[in-house]
Write a structure and sequence with these properties.
By secondary structure, the chain is an alpha+beta fold. It has a domain of 183 residues: Lipid/polyisoprenoid-binding, YceI-like (Lipocalin), CATH 2.40.128.110. The chain is 21% helix and 35% strand. The chain has six helices and 13 strands. Strands 1, 2, 3, 4, 5, 6, 7, 8, 9, 10, 11, 12 and 13 form a 13-stranded antiparallel β-sheet that branches. Strand 10 and strand 11 form a beta hairpin. The radius of gyration is 60 Å and the shape is elongated.
Length: 281
Amino acid sequence: MMTLQPTGSAVENAAKRHPAASIRSRRLGTLLCLLFCLLLFAACDAPDASAPVADSEPAAADTATPLPEPEPTDTPVPEPEPAPTATAAPQEETESESGELPAVGQTFVIASQESEARFIIDEELFGQPKTVVGATSALSGQLTVVAANPSASQIGVIQIDADTFITDHNRRNGAIRRFILQTNRHRYITFNATALTGLPDEVAVGDEVQFEITGDLTIREITKPVLFNVTLQVVSDTEIRGAASTVVALETFELTIPQVPSVANVGEEFIVEFDFVARVQ
């Protein structure tokens, strides 16, 4: 026997016969349709599983809140200087410990109060031999000593105030100034060194050196070459002491001795000497 499907009218009739079932059927359909749409929307919005996670999340550096930069000021803040490297302090040497003078030239100035220039001449006074000495501390000059090469050392002009020579008698002092040296017109005696010979290769503190100095001696504006024999002692790196002497003929400098009844046989030559102390200034 053949079963027939109900027609539209039949359905309508069934709905009319069972209204509550019809309402539940429509609600169920609507709910199913809504659930389908939600599943479809979620499927479209889901991230691709094959994409790396790092691409889907922003980097921490991109999301970090930037720190505010300090505003510039008018006064720049100096960078701290590196601490100096500690070095051992040089140990100072005393004069006796070093025993050496500086390799470069060192200038020593004559200390007048501790130095002396002299002339020495022989005569007979009242028939008795006598040695006359005239001395003064009024002298000046300087020496430049090169310890590593003494031959390169130099001596400046040595000057003596001839008006200050003193002997053992005031009458003699007056005669020397007025008649012999004529200091009212030629007050100064000078010596200008031109060469140093006989020096060692080097000198050090404590050495005693003997050498010769050639130069021009000027007395009463008459200049003649003379040679001094010198002994020099290096006391320290700041002090030297020395003695120099030469023999000069009276006639070389046109010096004449006044005729005095009590004086006879005055020597034709006289000695010129220097004793000096010189220090670094």
